[in-house]
Amino acid sequence: MDLLLLEKTLIGLFFAVTVATIVSKLRGRKFKLPPGPIPVPIFGNWLQVGDDLNHRNLTDYAKRLGDIFLLRMGQRNLVVVSSPELAKEVLHTQGVEFGSRTRNVVFDIFTGKGQDMVFTVYGEHWRKMRRIMTVPFFTNKVVQQYRHGWEAEIAAVVDDVRSNPAAATEGIVLRRRLQLMMYNNMYRIMFDRRFEREDDPLFVKLKSLNGERSRLAQSFEYNYGDFIPILRPLLKGYLKICKEVKEKRFQLFKDYFVDERKKLGSTKPVDNDGLKCAIDHILEAQQKGEISEDNVLYIVENINVAAIETTLWSVEWGIAELVNHPQIQKRLRDEIDAVVGPGVQITEPDTHKLPYLQAVIKETLRLRMAIPLLVPHMNLHEAKLGGYDIPAESKILVNAWWLANNPATWRNPEEFRPERFLEEESKVEANGNDFRYLPFGVGRRSCPGIILALPILGVTLGRLVQNFEMLPPPGQERIDTSEKGGQFSLHILKHSTIVLKPRSL
Ligand code: HEM
Predict the structure, then answer these.
(1) Which residues bind heme per the record (predicted)?
(2) Can you tell me the distance from the alpha carbon of 341 to that of 333, in angstroms, rounded to the nearest whole number?
């Protein structure tokens, strides 16, 4: 209530100067800015456009304002790009110019003002972090080292579901078990660790702190203090909570994972059949003086957020679409039975021989893109884009969801139809070979985790479909696929109950 009152007072206060300032700005303007609604001082367009700048709302603006438009959100310039040509310009042709990241007041806290890799500006630090992270995380060798682990994790999910009679009758919230699996998939890579059960206290703590971090970061409720510096004091309470969550999280990463691994290292240099896990590589870089201890923890933080949630959301969306499209689910099951053989559990190498499985994954990532606006880009210096001047340090959003869902370039894009990737779009890959389809971005800041995400999605969805018939809960025709968008995330609103009827193999 207080906040609303303050907003109203401020609106009143500045209304008088608004018109005069606009006129003087327009007269004295030397920039050719992208089109956009006329801003008012202090607030810019914020009062007109509101907080919820999700991919669908931004698509509506693009339809009115064009493929490039500018919103002034208080002190922040927000440029939204909505065509494959302009996406190419931002991500490829001018990839260096637009290769930085913006952070808002909350991301400043969680990333220590860019001491991490995902949210740091384009430059030396980013290059070094990306290089250091490549060998431990982003090569095919990592896939080969850990694929057996991922196969074991989904096998454990299948066993747990099979031994739970409720799964086949009233159904279960499968997502909970898959979340444990996804943590295990990534914690095996990072620390050679896994959690046995959903109620493991360390897992519960970790999951809750990561969840808090995501909720706090993706929420729109702190926008006002980020956009309008004079309102920032009102955010003090929010930012204090962010700082506390950050401190607790980092302490947990350090005490229970990084330091534990260090201890192990001093007695037993390498584990896991003589192979190093990711943190061993990262700690080596620290010992060589390439990065600090804080940087090590920021790498752990980045993987927790960038890898686990995104892949989990995509698995969840994939399951939801398969439940709601039984014919597609059946076709996928038939393909696996035909290629791998009935009763033979699919493995990572099999996923490459299953075009329909690949098409189902691509279609899931197209219609239900986990990061529909990519991670915000930024130009450090003034730049040109689409014939317009872009002020330095603008936040650049590429509406990748719209590029992949625009009826002008896709046939019936609102339909979940994997066949499109075998028929009219058979040449389109998830690696950014077509600027209409960028679920992982493309270019310098594209997702390096694609190399892990696709095989994990393949074995997870494949094993579920070959072992179970997945259905909506009794009395429901389909499951609810309402979306929940955040600052740049898209996940399913309700974690649905799903019935899983075991197939007799
Ligand atoms: C289905 C799962 C995933 C999706 C849809 C996804 C998508 C994305 C997208 C759209 C970006 C931003 C691209 C841009 O701004 O141009 C990104 C960045 C990133 N992703 Fe992923 N990702 C996934 C899984 C993963 C995994 C498994 C990892 C790590 C193991 C990972 C690590 C990263 C990192 C480190 C960045 C930042 C790259 C940079 O700024 O240089 N992602 N991801």
Answers:
(1) 447
(2) 11
Please check whether residue 83 lies inside any domain of the structure. yes
Domain annotation covers residue 422: yes
Mean predicted confidence (pLDDT) in 481-490? 89
Q: What is the mean pLDDT of residues 194-205?
A: 97
Domain that holds residue 165: 31-502
Q: What is the DSSP string of 280-297?
A: HHHHHHHHTTSS-HHHHH
Number of the ligand 1 atom closest to the C-alpha atom of 133? 35
The residue among 174, 181, 420, 501 whose CA lies nearest residue 318 is 174
Q: What is the dihedral of CA 378, 134, 401, 363, to 10 degrees?
A: 170
The CA distances from residue 289 to 118, 200, 280, 282, 339, in Å, are: 21, 35, 14, 11, 50
Burial class (CB in 10 A: 0-12, 13-18, 19+), 27: exposed
d(CA 467, CA 163): 13
* DSSP element (H, E) containing 396: strand 395-398
Within a domain: 305:
yes
* Segment 370-377 mean pLDDT: 97
Domain count, the chain: 1
Q: Residues with Cβ within 6 A of ligand 1?
A: 91, 117-118, 130, 137, 302-303, 306-307, 310-311, 314, 370-371, 374-375, 377, 439-441, 445-449, 452-453
Q: What is the pLDDT of residues 221-231, one digit of tens each?
A: 999 998 999 99
- So what's the pLDDT on residue 30? 72
pLDDT value of residue 3:
52
User: For residues 180 and 160, what is the distance between their CA atoms, to the nearest angstrom?
Assistant: 12
Integer Cα distance of 227 and 224 in angstroms:
5
Across 13-27, 205-219, 454-468, least confident range: 13-27
Is residue 9 in a domain? no
Higher confidence at residue 498 or residue 21? 498
Q: How would residue 22 be classed by pLDDT, with cut points 50, 70 and 90?
A: very low
**What average pLDDT score do residues 386-411 get?**
98
Ligand-binding annotation for 447, yes or no, is: yes
Distance 195 CA to ligand 1 centre (A): 24
Name the residue of 103, 181, 310 whose CB sits within 8 Å of the most ligand 1 atoms, as the mutation to test its pocket. 310
State the CATH number of the domain containing residue 364: 1.10.630.10
> Per-residue pLDDT tens for 450-464?
999 999 999 999 999
Ligand 1 centroid vs 374 CA: distance in angstroms? 9
At 268 the pLDDT is 53
From CA 232, how far away is CA 239, in angstroms rounded? 10
CA atoms within 13 A on the CB side of 355: 9
